[in-house]
Amino acid sequence: MSKETGALAQIQRQIQWNRLIAVVEEQAQTMIRTAFSTTVREAGDLSAGIFDLEGRMLAQAVTGTPGHVNSMAESVGHFLKKFPAHVMKPGDHYITNDPWLATGHLHDLTVVTPAFRNGRIVGLFANTAHIIDIGGLGMGPEGRSVFEEGLYIPIVKCFDRNVPNETFFDFIRAGSRTPVELEGDIYSLCACNDAGAKRLVEMMDEFAMDSLDELGGYIFDASTRATLAEIAKLPRDTYRAEIKSDGYEAPVTLKAAMTIHDDRIVVNFAGTSGLSNRGINVPPAYCRAYACFGIKCVVAPEVPNNWASLLPFQMEIPEGCILNAPHPYPVSVRHVVGQLLPDLMMGCLHQAVPERVNAEGSSALWNPPLRGGSQVSGQAAETEDFEIITFNSGGTGARPTKDGLDGTAFPSGVRTMPVEATENVAPVIFWQKQLRPDSAGAGRTRGGFGQVMEIGAKGDAEFAVNAIFDRVANPPKGRDGGGEGAAGWVGLNDPNGTVLRTKGFQIVPKGKHLLLKLPGGGGMGDPKERDPDLVKRDVEDGLVSLEAARAVYGFKSG
Q: Could you report the per-residue pLDDT of 175-232, keeping only the tens digit for each?
């Protein structure tokens, strides 16, 4: 092959790669446009991707969360074990919410769909979405086994050659408090895979591609080489870190020993706390998903996320620890612990490449599941029945050269849901939603600010919250002399400041509102080194009190 021919082939493969990204992004956007649940439509709590016939992820949509994407990357192989590619037919759609075969809890539905060109299967599309209700106790930590947490769907066909499996749909409608939304979301997941398959065939026709093998080989080879090149730049050693979660029955300690080798990074979680009796346990795939993401953000952020680029990151998760929950342990709110893992990984990497690592942030989402009506108050309910969840976040940790982000979800990446969207679908009122002053950890670069939220039911009726909050007893830590972010707080809006438990089902009495104070991110560096103009700006914006500015930053007004 001449140099000119080789260069043209390289350009063509890059064009094909870009087109593949466009294909999976349209796949994800189709789901967002057609979803019934606000968690998908408004927050983008989803993932979408394309896989080869061996179940290896070729590409993921830009839209989506790492917990979904990286655990979904493992799940397609499980689908293929039950339904090998050669038995799949056009119009088939397969589904599961098995926490150990998919993305970690029953509230996530994963759908896999084959794509056919000229009667021959050429690839697989997969997606995952968080749905509002799957029955059982609802989204919360109270279950003592996965069987209490909702409908458990094994890997089954939900559509057979475009014909819906009516028995399947009868079961899921009967088992959910929100049957219309649940059924609609399943149709949405199937439609989004169909959209991806259609665009893939158009792309393959345009480039006269008989299969994805050659393009897949190019993607995997380039991603492997790029990832290994970045690992090679790191100092060889073993780095250790730990982080604490509020837990449920008792505080949880997460420990990691990260060893950087020439061709891989191995993380051992020995010393991590044991399993919980409640639903904060983490299935191993979800642990790998967020741990890999935390490493990749620092080590190889520019390398596309796929099967090959994830291979060099290896996890050793001891049996019996909270990050390796076996079936049938409860796992409903595995994100409360799992989303702390990127901060833990950065605690290790801070010792190797401190200039590339953030301070700790609020990390775990503050997404209160709210329930009201007769299922809370009995027949005397003063409001209609509702089941809703709203996604919100505290501040992220400070960056080495920039402040942390206010009210932003890291590591999950989901969007904060507009209050209007939630009020439109449920009889709730957000009486207050604003940035929380003095919540950002001080530093040369400060953390992001948390939020204050006040929520009530219409008519100030009684309602319930299934609390799933963290970073209350263990606020986000700063780095390099930076201060802690403000701890979270959960309670009522009454004059006594009644405190609620950070986890578990609780009633907000008639006439009262739920008050949430979300954590701020930790700071980075000595606060006295902060630019006085930036301190002045925060004071003028009402985000840092004059007293705090003087005491912490040495600010001199006037």
A: 999 999 999 999 999 999 999 999 999 999 999 999 999 999 999 999 999 999 999 9
Q: For 244-302, write each residue's pLDDT tens digit.
A: 999 999 999 999 999 999 999 999 999 999 999 999 999 999 999 999 999 999 999 99
Cβ atoms of residues 505 and 496 within 8 Å: no
The structure's pTM equals: 0.96
Q: Which residue has the tokens 């996530």?
A: 108
**DSSP codes joined into one string, 271-296:** T--B--SSTT---HHHHHHHHHHHHH
Strand partners, 503: 468
Distance of CA 176 to the CA centre of its chain: 23
- Write the DSSP symbol of residue 476: P
What is the rounded CA–CA span in Å between residue 422 and residue 386?
Answer: 11
Q: Are 295 and 344 in contact (CB under 8 A)?
A: no
pLDDT band for position 5 (50/70/90)? low
Nearest to 259 by CA among 245, 240, 246: 240
pLDDT of residue 8: 83
The answer, yes or no, to whether the previous bond of 328 is cis (omega within 30 of 0) is yes
Indicate the domain borders of the chain.
Answer: 10-223, 358-558
